[in-house]
Request: fold
Amino acid sequence: VWDKSENGDWHCTASWKTHSGSVWRVTWAHPEFGQVLASCSFDRTAAVWEEIVGESNDKLRGQSHWVKRTTLVDSRTSVTDVKFAPKHMGLMLATCSADGVVRIYEAPDVMNLSQWSLQHEISCKLSCSCISWNPSSSRAHSPMIAVGSDDNSPNVLAKVQIYEYNENTRKYAKAEALMTVTDPVHDIAFAPNLGRSFHILAVATKDVRIFTLKPLRKELTSSGGLTKFEIHIVAQFDNHNSQVWRVSWNITGTVLASSGDDGCVRLWKANYMDNWKCTGILKGNGSPVNGSSQQGIFNASLGSANTSLQNSLNGSSASRYFFPPLDSPRAGSRWSSHAQLLPPPPLIEQSCDADAANLQYPHPRRRCVSRPLNLLPENEGV
Amino acid sequence: QVSILSAMELIWNLCEILFVEAAAAGPLLLRLLDWVRLHVCDVDTMVREVLSSENPSKHKLFWNVVDVFVLQGRMDEARHLLSKEATANPTSMNMYKILDDLMKKMPVPSLGNTQTLTELELKWQHWHEECQRYLQDGTFASNPHMESLCKVLLGDEDAILEKKELMTTWYHFLVTRLLYSHPTVKPMELRFYAQSSMDLFLGGESSPEPLDMILMAAFEFEMHQVIKECSIVLSNWWFVAHLTDLLDHCKLLQSHNLYFGSNMREFLLLEYASGLFSHHSLWQLGVDYFDHCPEYGRVYLELHIERVPLNTEQKALKVLRICEQRQMHEQVRSICKIMAMKALRNNRLGSALSWSIRAKDAAFATLISDRFLKDYCERGCFSDLDLIDNLGPSMLLSDRLTFLGKYREFHRLYGEKRFPEAARLLLTLMTAHIAPCSFWMTLLTDALPLLEQKEVIFSAEQTYELMRCLEDLTAGNPDKQKFQEDDVETTKVEMLRLALARNLARVIVKEGTVEGS
Reply:
């Protein structure tokens, strides 16, 4: 666990070995519940951790202590993802496993993190790799989970499923499956809902995809109240030119960050006409591609493990794509080396269109625990 | 070299002239002249140098400065300098007088409505012909400088272009050109002159830079293009957000057929304000910006304000004030809860309690009250007395909190030796079921010293009540085993029974005694 000090530096304040297999994911609970983490691992368990305030000397030495509050051992296979539910649902989390089971646990007493009860078990029939809760707290939306699968089997089953809580049956039921996603899915993320009636879902698969899910009237069938959705794909980007491993939204759901095997992080944004375009590319060490001098801005925006990748891009020159062309493109609008007026042309035009030149050698497949990009891993082997 | 700030000022002023003020033919030229004089000032040093020298007319840059004045339409200053040359060089007196006269008479648009454009054009035509005559007559032939000046007055492009270095930019050239060839230029005609000016000035040697393209778009009244180009060039949303906002307020974005005008304004403002929120102190400005975004401002604010790092209590209070002012109840609750949790984890119970009171979080208040009580049981004293003493009406937030407050009051009364009141309160705490059953033992134990006082405090009825409470407690306890095994507990109960019995005895006597007659 890294903490940010007063002068903005990140320090590792805790590091401990606990699982008996690779740790696939870590995730924070909302600070309303205190300083709480959950981890999931290849060793078939998920664990919930709480930071306890230690001796004052520890604070001075910059160390914090984490205690395991509970271990969730119901899974019989590797637990591939763990995510806390939106805070308005209480202290709840979901895990998904390689054998296709999604489990939802609840801690009825938020002050007692050692008591969790298994509330739901959902069988997805496909090996699960990732889950995402719909963050919308609107009363018009029932609790919803998206599940992604990296199943490699040749059946062309939809690799993204949406499960919705049915108030009548008090169970989660499959509401939708994205039939167009047939390649293994590595990550999935609902965007924060800005009071929209529809949902936005990002999928990390062989490319970056963004879907909108518009709830249609609830079907008044005997099973009662299952929403039907109108699904549209609003963006699809293969700029990573390789497997996309993670997708993450900023807090307003206006910028999506994706990471891929090309070793780059890409940022995607929609203009007010809802056209999505790339607004930034970062290499693994946090430096922008093309050596642009925008590093300062990006350093500030990356990592606080507490939040998803926040974007504080102060309007980089991505704006070219924010304004739909009114008439024929202007001739002669070339970049100039008028150094004081312009920052050197950074990110879009060249990079997004001609990525081949900037690709690093694709890394072998590996899953990374999220951590700030510009710090070298301390204890790689731990 | 133009710094970014100067460039922004340059663009902004031009937009003000062309879009906001929408200067009409006539005043338009005057405004543009002001604009050039204000912003194209590479020549200022040279001007100062010459003017402050002992003998300006002998200065090697003298004629340059005169040229600058004429190019910028600063006739009076030009004439003033020329007069120095004339005094120094009497031979050219004649030429000087004529040139001076021409300069003086040059018709320029006036700001007031004293003349119509037609009148101006007529006057100007006459004047122009007069200049032409003098030039053709060779009046200035012997002084190349003056002849060149006359050509400039006539709007001779080549003559003007010769003085390229003094103008430094094509837009200066444009304005000079207009001054001396089309002073009554209409706004819609600007684009043609602008384009040709740029072409002539750059002359194929260099290509237009982004700043040039922005200004060109402005001259062409392509507001949208201006905003777009600015966004591309500037690495910060500040400029475009404010410019678009201004144009939107002038209702210019719609009239220019940008049906997405107000959306674009909000989009840019949201972008800018969001950027501000990542700054440790500028985020407060972001709040105001969001307030002015009618569609998404509130929800953006709600999302951003929750993420402001609450490193200090002051910051948390600041954030809370902002939320409370805007009736963002959920955010208030959430922030208070986060702060309360933080305080609780650090064992700062008083702080945690005040945060949960502020959040009106009854459940949490109950929890913290329990902690207080637990602390008291273990340590025999209260922490954060100030807070508990001054709870006031917020005591009613949760039953446990009410009990805590009242219990503390009991201790206070006891400390002030107001025993009867204390006794009454103690009893009420049990009989009115304000106290949780788990605490009754402690309360009864607290009653002991009152029972042991020299003076009888509890009345007979009260004593009976106390006994009943004790019986309720011991009888109702299912875990009789525990009670019997725990020596301390048994002793306590015994002591209580004894004290109660003794008190009862004394009080019966006291109450039965008739006050002496």
About this structure: Chain A touches chain B through 46 residues (CB under 8 Å). The domain at 22-48+68-289 of chain A is CATH 2.130.10.10 (Methylamine Dehydrogenase; Chain H). Confidence is low (pLDDT under 50) at residues 291-321, 324-382 of chain A.
